[in-house]
Specification:
With 254 residues, the chain is α/β, with parallel strands linked by helices. The chain has 11 helices and 7 strands. The mean pLDDT is 97. It binds adenosine-5'-diphosphate and magnesium ion.
Length: 254
């Protein structure tokens, strides 16, 4: 049975999508069957694995709001073993449209996860930068939550709020939800500040922090324009090696 991992942090630009795409692709390259679920209306993960979000007839929105069968929107990607449930701008309306639905927090769980769990080793959900209903849905559907934290000045800002949201979900919606871990991203070894952030995050969160640190790397930031995960562009680049190491550490924990 597959494991469901939500990649969440309500801060934007911390490396959620980059981590979702490249962890998913790295696990796939390590021969795991992986489904990447794009749950952000910006559809950055969709485009980063080469699926043209604007040209699709249906996406995750239709699965959540119109109860379209998820099988209808599962796409193969150029990365072997990596499939995608794409997103699109319509998803921005979903929170409002789901508001009066019975068990509105369970829609990702019932309409997506229940139908795909047996077919994949891992399902990775890329969340949007908010703690609204879609993120609550992802946390309700997930076995674990993985939190990317950028190695910068305001790194810890908002983490308490995220922890509170996770606690509420554990108490009311998904008692078995666990923390997969914190991943430090965009580390720049030239900056003293980055080293201080790493030390602080390790001091506070201890063994919950992955040993693997994702460094700031140009190949990683260029990859979305090439519509391929960095491991598919240049598996020897520092960025690819970082994410492959993260995938191996992740698998060791699982
Ligand atoms: P989020 O999904 O949390 O908003 P993204 O993954 O989209 O964050 O990352 C924000 C920006 O930072 C993107 O332009 C992305 O390409 C860039 N980025 C993320 N991780 C790295 C990295 N390790 N090295 C260089 N650029 C990165
Ligand atoms: Mg994102």
């Amino acid at each position: 049975m597959g494991k469901i991992v939500a990649i969440a942090n309500q801060k934007g630009g911390v490396g959620k999508t980059t981590t979702a795409v490249n962890l998913a692709a790295s696990l796939a390259i390590l021969e795991k069957k992986v489904l990447l679920v794009d749950a952000d209306p910006q559809a950055n993960a969709t485009s980063a694995v080469g699926i043209p979000a604007d040209e699709l007839e249906a996406n995750i929105y239709d699965v959540l709001v119109n109860d379209l069968d998820v099988e209808e929107v599962i796409y193969e990607t150029e990365t072997p073993n990596l499939h995608l449930v794409p997103s699109g701008i319509a998803l921005a309306n979903a929170e409002v449209e789901l508001i009066n639905r019975f068990r509105r927090e369970d829609v990702i769980k019932n309409n997506i996860i229940a139908k795909v769990r047996d077919k994949y080793d891992f399902v990775i959900i890329d969340c949007l930068p908010s703690l609204g209903l879609i993120t609550i849905n992802a946390l309700t559907a997930a076995d674990t939550v993985l939190v990317p934290v950028q190695c910068e000045y305001f790194a810890l800002e908002g983490l308490t709020k995220l922890q509170n949201t996770i606690s509420v979900v554990q108490q009311q919606l998904n008692p078995s939800l666990k923390i997969e871990g914190i991943v430090l991203t965009m580390y720049d070894s030239r900056l003293r500040l980055a080293k201080m952030v790493v030390a602080k995050v390790r001091e506070i969160f201890g063994s919950k922090v992955f040993d693997t640190i994702i460094h700031r790397n140009a190949r990683i930031s260029e990859a979305p324009n090439l519509h391929l995960p960095v491991v598919m562009i240049n598996a020897g680049s520092k960025g690819a090696v970082n994410y492959l190491n993260l995938a191996e550490e992740f698998m060791k924990n699982n």
